[in-house]
Amino acid sequence: MKILVIEDEPKAAEYLRQGLSESGYAVEVAHDGTDGLHAAATGDHALVILDVMLPGIDGFAVLSALRTSRQVPVLMLTARGKTDDKVRGFDLGADDYLVKPFQFPELLARVRALLKRGQPAVADPVLRVGDLEIDSVRHRATRQGQRIDLTAKEFALLSLLTRKTGEVLSRTQIASLVWDIHFDSDSNVVEVAMRRLRAKIDDPFADKLIHTVRGVGYVLERRKP
Ligand code: CA
Prior knowledge:
By secondary structure, this protein is of the alpha/beta class. It folds into 2 domains: 2-117, 3-Layer(aba) Sandwich (Rossmann fold); 126-220, Arc Repressor Mutant, subunit A (Orthogonal Bundle). It has helices spanning 10-22, 33-42, 59-66, 83-91, 104-123, 152-163, 171-178, 189-201; strands at residues 2-6, 26-30, 47-51, 74-79, 96-100, 126-129, 132-135, 140-143, 146-148, 169-170, 210-213, 217-220. A 5-stranded parallel beta sheet has the order 2-1-3-4-5, sandwiched between helices. The chain has a 4-stranded antiparallel beta sheet with strand order 6-7-8-9, covered by helices on one side. Calcium ion is lined by residues 7-9, 51, 53-54.
């Protein structure tokens, strides 16, 4: 199982890397928030250990950005006596919290508990909205049981919209999460992809799932006719 450690202090990062490796985990280390977020959002880690105090974007910003794309378990690390940090971390979707300095066996116990807890979610990789089903493991989408042929980007776009069912996503958010680009406002890459996706997902069916929210972005949801 792969664990991502996001920690800027070299000694602390090495301590975690060594301890976790010796416990049988594959460990990747990122030394700042930007690299860490990129690694976490694009990787297949079973767990992320995230330090709050990081240069550039801090642990909270990493966590909130990460939660728009992946539900990987996150264990946050912070300095002693920062109760506010703990509350804030949980609000943003942290799964557990450990105060520095800690004993390694305690960290290991939490890591094991989180990995165990995370497993049922992996067991059902299928997302469903109405008659739309997306199987993220087999990379397959169906409506009313009919297979829909999608490109890799269309699949990524549909997965994002489905994970965020009912939530309006802006073109900028979509562009950065699906294409990993922060494009200028003239680009119509999202519009073009969305049109193609709708032609496959919605046009053949009476029940439309993808909706444009004028001036804001797009939302995928079931609406009463
Ligand atoms: Ca730090």
